[in-house]
Amino acid sequence: MHGILEHAKSNGDGLGNTEPGGPAQSAELPVLIVGGGPTGLLSAYMLSKHGIKSLLIEKYPERLAAPKAHALCPRSLEICRQYGLDTNAMRKLGTPREDASWVNFVTDLSRDHIGLLPYERMDAGVLEHTPEFVAKELEHDPNVEIRKNVAFITSRQVPEPSKKKYTWLTLMLEVDDHVISTVEERSTKAQWQVRSRHVLACDGAKSQVRADLAIESEDETMMTIHFKANLRSVVGERTGMLYWITDPACSGFIIAYDLDANHVLISNFNSKKNPVNSWSQELAQTTIAAAIGQKVPFEVLSYRPWLLSRKVANQYRQGNIFLYVSPGSGTVSSRLNHNVSRVGDAAHSFPPTGGLGLNSGIADAHNIVYKVAAVHHGWATPSILRTYEDDRRQIALVNSTQSVKNGKKIFSFLKALGTAGIDDMEEARRNLYKSVHDPAKQDMIAREIEGQREHFDNLGLHIGYVYGDKTTSPHASKFSPKFTPGGRLPHAWIKPRLSAASFNVVPLDVSYVKEFPQAVIDDRQFSMLDLVEFDSFTLIVSSHDTWAPRVGQLDKIFQSSGINLRLRSFDNDFEFVYEEQLQMYNDGSGILHGSGLLVRPDQHLLGFLDAKSTAEDLASLILAHVGK
């Protein structure tokens, strides 16, 4: 493959080393993405949709065998859909709805069933609030170069004012407002310096970018064991996405990606008794056998320690370096260089059972990418990048608080079973089975299980957050549509007045909800969210003719700035499928009385305009957001 780094080899200019002691080389591009997990790949894909080239480096030569995150929330599917990914196909790749509807609390898979809870709102009613293979999409994308087995070494921000000389490694550099990053090919130790305008740090909870920026974290080690087994005969009718194993011999949870074959056990092991470096194939097999509880053929595919931290970064961005969130559990504190953003676990991470990590990372990417694109294409000033931290860090803090709350409730549950805080495993096991079979304790155990409900039902966190709102919802499961600036545009089912092609997305297929008759399936193919395209602001109104003249005046106001605004009207472009959802919109925004909803490119509300608002009022909202 002849790409950016090979080009640098043939055009070295004294900025790095191709090999120890060898000549120095450099490469230049708009965006460097560190980390080839879901958030990194999606960021590269979305940037390409905006016409921006990126180099994505991933330190591992192959994808890790054991999956970590196990659920895409409705908001993540909405984001993927907006950028043209086939969410109908994605849904078919997942665990069947009939197998994934429950969280089971068990001693092990074969013995006592302690209780169960619904898993993440699988009921049909959730579709009233939301209509809802990235690597393959990038295989032939000319805007994205992916390099595996390439590690990030370090980066430095180059300040904006005039050109100055800076010491880089042992060399003197003369550069302007960019980030200089050193990357290394792990097999050959060849190094390059990559000069980019922005760096997106998507390299996970053990982020090298975060370490380079002196970010501290507090970690807890769990063991992830990926195994193959047919567990359908073991669980019988007790199907579910998660199995919470309470037996101290293998305390943790099983994620049942495919009951017939594919599973992961995440075990909270005693690192004093069994240090990470003492783990072996035999110990992994013993742990899996204890979790299953009966002799069933299985194969351990891999086992890896998983560091979970419990902090949220003090800063998500310094300059043009940005950090994202990703699967895990955590909090970090740091000072960031100006041009680096953290995305995913690099910015925050959360215990995997809550489903907050990966989904928060995708939302991080969604938020920062259109802003980077706006600056790159010149229709926003760099000040818009400051809103990334303003928007996303508060969401991470709320999710982190929920994560701690979940952890306390799980501890309370284990305490009720008599296993919490007991170092002697046999004593803890005796307490467990005595409690499970004690009639006097059943009501208390049932209450403790009910107390776990919002651990596995986070609809309010997934789609109910409002940028700029620092209040915390008292219950993560509760959701109601919010017509307020910073909130996600509320979902409603709509139909195109002309052709489906006018929406620029493929129709949704909700036939996976077996309860729906064909008429309902036919009615639920498009959402209000489909009106919003990722490269423009959107104004949603009732009357096209009333607002079109005002929108037409914006060209003079914006003066070829590159800002795009699309007008979508109830009388010209779409109609509501359900009268009650039209009424919800009118109650929340006054759309039938001449008001307009102004929506950001990321489908969040920017503001409202009343019937008397002028073109200048509309322009001022947009210009304030883009920093002009």
From TrEMBL:
<keyword id="KW-0274">FAD</keyword>
<dbReference type="InterPro" id="IPR036188">
    <property type="entry name" value="FAD/NAD-bd_sf"/>
</dbReference>
<dbReference type="InterPro" id="IPR002938">
    <property type="entry name" value="FAD-bd"/>
</dbReference>
<feature type="compositionally biased region" description="Basic and acidic residues">
    <location>
        <begin position="1"/>
        <end position="10"/>
    </location>
</feature>
<keyword id="KW-0560">Oxidoreductase</keyword>
<dbReference type="InterPro" id="IPR050641">
    <property type="entry name" value="RIFMO-like"/>
</dbReference>
<dbReference type="GO" id="GO:0071949">
    <property type="term" value="F:FAD binding"/>
</dbReference>
<dbReference type="GO" id="GO:0016709">
    <property type="term" value="F:oxidoreductase activity, acting on paired donors, with incorporation or reduction of molecular oxygen, NAD(P)H as one donor, and incorporation of one atom of oxygen"/>
</dbReference>
<dbReference type="GO" id="GO:0006744">
    <property type="term" value="P:ubiquinone biosynthetic process"/>
</dbReference>
<dbReference type="Pfam" id="PF01494">
    <property type="entry name" value="FAD_binding_3"/>
</dbReference>
<protein>
    <recommendedName>
        <fullName>FAD-binding domain-containing protein</fullName>
    </recommendedName>
</protein>
<feature type="region of interest" description="Disordered">
    <location>
        <begin position="1"/>
        <end position="22"/>
    </location>
</feature>
<feature type="domain" description="FAD-binding">
    <location>
        <begin position="29"/>
        <end position="323"/>
    </location>
</feature>
<feature type="domain" description="FAD-binding">
    <location>
        <begin position="343"/>
        <end position="396"/>
    </location>
</feature>
<keyword id="KW-0285">Flavoprotein</keyword>
<dbReference type="GO" id="GO:0005739">
    <property type="term" value="C:mitochondrion"/>
</dbReference>
